[in-house]
């Protein structure tokens, strides 16, 4: 077989097309894997809408959250635990990194590699062609961390771990320990926010509050252990939301705010968190924000931002899903199921918040 079927984005907001895309010749330690399930997130929607993506990126195969089954490996490829990667292994894989820039060799932050590139936005007319999950096959290059999926974890959930959950795991690593007396507010109830609420609950927070919309997503947050939720469609002013939270935190504000919505929420986050508290920013968009000049200093805040993840975060994300399924009904995250010929519908539904985490299966309807 020299090519495979893929859903291809050809332009901003253009209907996604079914095309035959070449299968690449494998580099040393390269992998070709048969897609088992791909999931979509808000970033895929932003790419399709022309945001957060460089000009000239189309045509590309969307989808950067993919669980796949190894079909072919060239050479001696090892997973993150040092075990051989073989045909039939079900895997998720980190973005590739160069291994020789400052961030790879000195800082040990391969997620910030100067020569890295993301899956789900690589041109299909340029080698290695198949770097997105909305296709029958996916290519995984050398110098990307391979993590095998535990049997207990379904492929759709494993795919979601390859972006939303691994990013939250990374963020909580930077945030540090959550003390048993602390209140955590999570802004946003998409996949990032839902996973953040679950981790906050699992790490022992005294109270977890989730702020977001729509109501259907907030219901999932409640099922996952949130103590209270606030619908921003009903409480539309930031000042009212801040006051609502203070009423539930002895008038001082929460100890920790985790922003999983968008960067436009950062001012509200920093105003909401208590003096001496901690703030973690995960959600991002391209809009500028304005902050009072002395806010972070005067409130003595600890501020962390996070983007992406490295191999250990992928591994920890899968282990969290495998070992906590009895406590959290993770499958509630997965919403609609689509086929390759319906990817446009999935992206549109995501953009209208009608889906939480849609799954794309590698076949046509």
Low-confidence stretches: none
CATH architecture grouping of the largest domain: Alpha-Beta Complex
SSE run = EEEHEEHEEHEHEHEHEHEHEHEHE
Helix content: 25-40%
The number of distinct helices, counting runs of at least 4 residues, comes to 10
Q: Strand pairing plus helix content: what structural class? A: alpha/beta
Largest sheet: 7 strands, mixed
CATH topology of the largest domain: Quinone Oxidoreductase, Chain A, domain 1
Averaged pLDDT: 96
Radius of gyration: 20 Å
Let me know the number of strands. Answer: 15
CATH class of the largest domain: Alpha Beta
Count of distinct structural domains: 2
* CATH homologous superfamily descriptor of the largest domain: Medium-chain alcohol dehydrogenases, catalytic domain
Strand content: 15-25%
What is the general shape?
globular
Cα distance spanning the termini:
22 Å
Can you give a write-up of this model?
It is a single chain. The chain has 365 residues and is α/β, with parallel strands linked by helices. The protein has two domains: 3-152 and 325-361, Alpha-Beta Complex (Quinone Oxidoreductase, Chain A, domain 1); 166-305, NAD(P)-binding Rossmann-like Domain (Rossmann fold), CATH 3.40.50.720. Helix content is 26%, strand content 22%. It has ten helices and 15 strands. Strand 1 and strand 2 (17-22) form a beta hairpin. Helix 1 (42-48) packs across helix 10 and helix 3 packs across helix 4 (191-202). The two termini are 22 Å apart. The model has no long low-confidence stretch (mean pLDDT 96).
